[in-house]
Amino acid sequence: MNSLEIFSGAGGLAKGLEQAGFRHAAFVEFNLHACNSLRENFDPENVFCGDIKDFDLDGMVSIDVVAGGPPCQPFSMGGKHKAHNDSRDMFPYAIKAIERLTPKAFVFENVKGLLRTSFSEYFEYILLRLTYPGFKPSEPSDWRYHLSILKKLEKMSYTGTKYQVQFKLLNAADYGVPQTRERVVIVGIRSDVGVDWKFPVETHSEDRLLWDMYVSKDYWKRHNISLRMPYEDSQTHKEKVRRLINRYGMFEPTELPWQTVRDALVNVPDPRSDHKIADHIYKGGARSYPGHTGSYIDWPSKTIKAGGHGVPGGENMVRFGDESVRYFTVFEAKRIQTFPDDFIIKGAWGEAMRQIGNAVPVKVASVLGSHLWATLQQTGASSSKKKVAV
Questions:
Q1: CB within 8 Å of 96: residues ≥ 6 apart
Q2: How many domains does the chain divide into?
Q3: What residues make up the domain containing 214?
Q4: Residue 263 within a domain
């Protein structure tokens, strides 16, 4: 099945979908460094580096899936929260791609801030526009008026293309990514395809990690770390153990444990050693202060962030057992985001971290992609309705 990747970034979502079996027909990306990364890891002939407004959608043939991450700054918790009033809001162009190509399905990812109460009305508008992509607004400047019409459309005799649209707030850690990263994923299946979408079940849990640390102590055994830890006599530790045993009794949680930074970086050499890994370069200057403490090595990483004015070091540092900190290398950040080790991110440290921080974790994308592939195969789903020669 063919996919079109829009707002591709460095290609985290694309890589995961590729692992699931999808073939990328084209990538659309505005940032030059991200375009260079895409060209290094995918077919460079398929990379369109420029404004999506200038991309020829009519040149695409039989696109089964449209996927991407429309720029999140308008909805980011750390942004200016302008939503539809922000010129960087690219959801209208994502909707245009669905309208023109009528793929079997689409997958879009965005920040948790999209679910803010102050954005709820516009988010409802986005979902309804994706549900009825061919129902264009009569007055483009007045989206609220268009929303009022869309709300009534279900009761009207609408015969155009329709999608069954669902969204969910996913935590990457629940799918085996060594990072607590919450993102909104929106999935739509074209109604005539005749299959139902359900988000994949979470496979990993915090409780299982705590069980392996505090009850069975299997976590420490796996890493050959002394079983007797300094905190074991603390009341806080004893209370955690008591709660876990009360909840699960003699049987451990059935999920796999959340993956930690230590799990992700197992066998990764110290960046200051002679290791011959091109993007595993030590960066000095990291320091800790209140609110800027880094990611503890024995817990999933905090969300790797891109940052609007340079990369914030608090989230992009590793914190060791002795409370010392240092910056993640690009190689380590790729591991945290579950990129393959040989995936190439172009640009200096700050630019590379920006791309990694903006990416969808590859493992999450792979899980979603595999689930979507299986869903679309259930009834021998019909091919895309729009087939235009290049």
A1: 57
A2: 2
A3: 205-254
A4: no
